[in-house]
Amino acid sequence: xARAEYLKYKDPKQPVSVRVxxxxxxxxxxxKIGQMTQIERExxxxxxxxxxxxxxxxxxxxxxxxxxxxxxxxxxxITEMQKGALSTRLGIPMIYGIDAVHGNNNVYKATxxxxxxxxxxxxxxxxxxxxxxxxxxxxxxxxxxxxxAPCVAVCRDPRWGRCYESYSEDPMxxxxxxxxxxxxxxxVPADSAGRPYVAGSKNVAACxxxxxxxxxxxxxxxxxxxIISAHGLLSIHMPPYYxxxxxxxxxxxxxxxxxxxxxxxxxxxxxxxxxxxxxxxRGFVISDWEGIDRITxxxxxxxSYSIEAGIGAGIxxxxxxxxxxxxxxDLTTQVQNKVIPMSRIDDAVYRILRVKFTMGLFESPxxxxxxxxxxxxxxxxxxxxxxxxxxLVLLKNGKSSYxxxxxxPKKAGKILVAGSHADNLGxxxxxxxxxxxxxxxxxxxIGTTILSGIKxxxxxxxxxxxxxSPDSTVLADKYDYAIVAVGEPPYAETAGDNLNLTxxxxxxxxxxxxxxxxxxxxVLISGRPLVVEPYLGDMDAFVAAWLPGTEGQGVADVLFGxxxxxxxxxxxxxxxxxxxxxxxxxxxxxxxxPFGYGLTTKGAK
Length: 605
Ligand SMILES: O=[N+]([O-])c1ccc(O[C@@H]2O[C@@H](CO)[C@H](O)[C@H](S[C@@H]3O[C@H](CO)[C@@H](O)[C@H](O)[C@H]3O)[C@@H]2O)cc1
Known about the structure:
Elements: H1 16-26, H2 29-35, E1 37-40, H3 46-51, E2 56-59, H4 71-86, E3 95-98, H5 116-122, H6 125-140, E4 146-147, H7 171-176, H8 179-185, E5 207-211, E6 225-226, H9 230-237, H10 239-246, E7 251-254, E8 258-259, E9 262-263, H11 268-278, E10 284-286, H12 303-313, E11 318-319, H13 324-336, H14 342-358, H15 378-391, E12 393-397, E13 414-418, H16 425-429, H17 450-457, E14 463-467, H18 472-476, E15 481-487, H19 507-517, E16 520-525, H20 533-536, E17 541-544, H21 553-559
Parallel strand pairs: 1-2, 1-11, 2-3, 3-4, 5-7, 6-8, 7-10, 13-14, 13-15, 15-16, 16-17
Antiparallel strand pairs: 8-9, 12-17
Helix pairs in contact: 1-14, 5-15, 6-8, 6-15, 11-12, 12-13, 15-21, 17-21
The protein binds the ligand O=[N+]([O-])c1ccc(O[C@@H]2O[C@@H](CO)[C@H](O)[C@H](S[C@@H]3O[C@H](CO)[C@@H](O)[C@H](O)[C@H]3O)[C@@H]2O)cc1.
Ligand BV6 binds at residues 58, 60-61, 99, 148, 209, 288-289, 436, 493.
């Protein structure tokens, strides 16, 4: 039979640089531009992937092959797409990306870890690295090799709808928790010198986002303007990118926001001069969803300009995600007319291919069916439960120091559990869970509510009364103590922007009515600090639980003293929104609870 022509780029024994150069030299303009194009799952048929040489596909928030789809269903979908990509002349595998920002959160039955604000309160880089390892396994279980995480935003104003996606207001805490990257991708070898690195097929390529200053916008308005000096940008928002590059992060996603009025998606100085040439970032830069469209207002008003500005700024892969023929045709024309130089295209494709070769995608382009069982594995749920325990911050314990309320006695006559967030798995997971905006209720995925955890922890003789919103009859009864879980409903992005930051009704009234009739601990489920001073006096104890995820048992573990409280605030607990922005280190600093605050209790274990 005819000897298959030896192709250097297909030889895994060749150095990555040799493989990239060989493949690049063989590619047509259409094949190069295809690699720079990322489309949404909904329009990614095998035929489209083959016809347009598409290099990447994504799931937008909540975009799933079927409701409650199994790991096998996910893997079959990706296999079909990959066959399309590999059927092309050069057989370049496509890379599928998804927002696994607290576990593989679009996927039914996945373990949902606490959102980043809670992980910030743990101050535990090793824990976060282990979460990265578990997340990589649960993502690979669905056949996916690439995640748009971690968000390394330094949220400076809790009015921002995405503040819960940020580990902390303090860049040093965020820098320390870039350890997630080392969990997701694997620890870089000593001589990696910032090159992208993915250890193998149980790891995934990561994405540090959103570059840069996404957490510093005016009044926390999502996608708005970050008005700050170069010194401020480099000392507050840039540091996590230093650590991300040192840890070999494979990709960086550009922010929708602007820096001093210049759209980040059009910022050549920060993307090319600084990130690529000064910091020597060698992975690929990806736009956000319709990020180049939003360079203009209204978005997409001048798409040719958006393409010229975005690609020209140094963005390598465009998350289109739907109008891909328009993108491909327009970019092709601009290269043919020498508006965009071929050297820019070659830099982009070089970087994309470097990541794909380095992570072994050419050798293992298909899902590994043997990993399906990693999805929602008990071992990962136990890790998430540990993370919940360590994320809880105890802000008040007893109306006087000699009469602490916590830890609660497991053996009691009758206790009351109340509040909208006590028995609502969707609420305790928050946004970016099953759907983009998150859900309410207990049927959207598998997990343990705070109430279930309490029932599993107390002595069998203890009577547990549950009432979401106790009426006078319930309140007339006698309880040894009460646990009140209230807070914010789930939200994502702009939907979460909030200028008053009050505890949503009926939370405050439930706190006041229950705490009047029984000794009470309030557990706040929220993506950020909220106005709490008016109710603090009513509470005997107060716990910030953030957005704990599916393993609600972790809350009971600490409330009842199996484990001690250790969490420390990763954000300043402001007194009033009129003070905002107000962050640790500011000259005027008058919080209810300062950054780093957290009471402790001794745990039995
Ligand atoms: O129909 N509409 O009205 C509508 C409105 C807004 C939309 O906006 C879009 O909706 C979301 C759900 O599809 C998308 O995920 C993104 S968000 C963006 O997506 C990336 C990929 O998921 C993440 O890594 C980034 O971190 C995040 O900033 C976009 O804002 C979509 C549709």
